[in-house]
Amino acid sequence: MKPNVLVFFTDQQRADTTGVHGCPLDLTPNFDRFAQEGTHCYHAYTCQPVCGPARSCLQTGMYATATGTWRTGIGLDQSLPNLGTSFSQAGYQTGYIGKWHLGSHEHIGPVPKEQRGGYEFWLASNLLEFTSDAYDCTVFDGDGNPVKLPGYRVDGITDAAIRFIDSATQSDQPFFLFLSYIEPHHQNHRDDYPAPTGYAERYTGRWTPPDLQTLGGTSAQHLPGYFGMIKRLDEAFGRLLDTLKSLGILENTVVLYTSDHGNHFKTRNAEYKRSCHDASLRVPTALSGPGFSGQGRLQNLVSLVDLPPTLLDAAGLSIPETMQGRSLLRRSEGWPGEVFSQISESQVGRCIRTHRWKYSVVAAGVGGNSQPGSDTYTEDCLYDLEADPYELQNLVNHPSHTAVREQLRTRLLARMAEAGEPPAAILPHPEVFTGFTQRRVESAEVLQ
């Protein structure tokens, strides 16, 4: 029997909000247990640190420049094979609940059927942040009618998902449910993080991640609410796992937990994401169910584009040739030594991350909303993550790291070509600091 598939998708969640990534606040006991008992993608990264483009990647297994949704407001190309159509065509009951953010820009709430990615059951809003608040959640059904979900927004969305799962189990067909929360994304019209009543107070004055301890940003103001939102998300995740268990389908359900991108709390630019830093790129990701239970912590570098082919592979379905990611079930066939990300809106940028190095480039003088890519980039950042895990010292203009930059430049250009981008040139950083002598880092040290 084909397995059921459930995707639990959060919005703007840093990896280090989870216990398995070092958070000491016990925010995510359900996720932590789930990751330890299943397959934990310890090194998981988004390929586009902004909502709409990242979502296009997760639906299609393609990079954002290949999907055409390279910035927010560009609807998903419905001609592309995606998760909704692939599972529907394979006989699955498909459902989408929550935030979509892949409809045309003019659609704020209801999404026309032809823009829903092939999902059959529909209870969602294109821009949930604009049609709801923490205790005032409105989504839209398949006919475009508004549906008020009572309770805190996380709970209303979760209740709807439980109803879908319970109903789906009455059929002989397996189900594929994509459950998309907006939490812990900020509430746009107030620029805050509205936790459930009483939750933010639990985390006021508590732990702060090391990068935010140094850089600050809005973290002192916003972390308590952000943490409170994540606590409630984890409680919701536990409820869903209990639902699967009570219905006797947990062992035959592939469950994926992931997020679209992280949150740097206005430390790297004027907003919360859209940067090359791990605070923006690294996301909590784990899977359980057939093929994933008991596999432990993966050391592979995993990209968001790898998750769609992984889900299809786990269900025994064919992987469309258009998908640019790789199935995690086929790691023995070789795995890249870096992950590749495209950055838009704040800049036209590209970066790769290896286990040790972060290297990014930017199209100088080009607006991030003006074009998807460039034929010329300039080196922007280089971080030695082994010595500087919180990316506080940019080495891009240090002559001691010339060999490192040359190697990473070659690898980045290769990944850009693999993603289908046209040929481009990367220019060295225009300012080389020569004020001190440092041990030269040889090219052999890059291969990590």
Main sheet? 8 strands, mixed
The N- and C-terminal alpha carbons lie at a distance of: 41 Å
Radius of gyration: 21 Å
What is the average per-residue confidence, as pLDDT, rounded to a whole number?
Answer: 95
As residue ranges, the low-confidence spans are: 434-440
Helix content: 25-40%
Please give the structural blueprint:
Blueprint lengths: L3 E7 L18 H9 L1 E7 L5 H10 L3 H4 L15 H7 L3 E7 L21 E5 L2 H4 E2 L2 E5 L5 E4 L3 H16 L6 E6 L29 H6 L3 H28 L6 E7 L18 H4 L4 E3 L7 E8 L3 H8 L24 E5 L5 E5 L3 E6 L13 E9 L17 H17 L6 E3 L21
What do you see in this structure?
- The chain has 448 residues and is α/β, with parallel strands linked by helices.
- The protein is built from 11 helices and 16 strands.
- The chain has helices at residues 29-37, 51-60, 64-67, 83-89, 128-131, 153-168, 210-215, 219-246, 278-281, 307-314, 402-418; strands at 4-10, 39-45, 93-99, 121-125, 132-133, 136-140, 146-149, 175-180, 253-259, 286-288, 296-303, 339-343, 349-353, 357-362, 376-384, 425-427.
- Strands 4-3-8-1-9-10-2-11 form an 8-stranded mixed β-sheet, sandwiched between helices.
- Helix 11 links the parallel strand 15 (376-384) and strand 16.
- The longest helix has 28 residues, at 219-246.
- The chain is globular, with a radius of gyration of 21 Å.
- The protein starts with a strand and ends in a 21-residue tail after the last strand.
- Mean pLDDT is 95; it is low at 434-440.
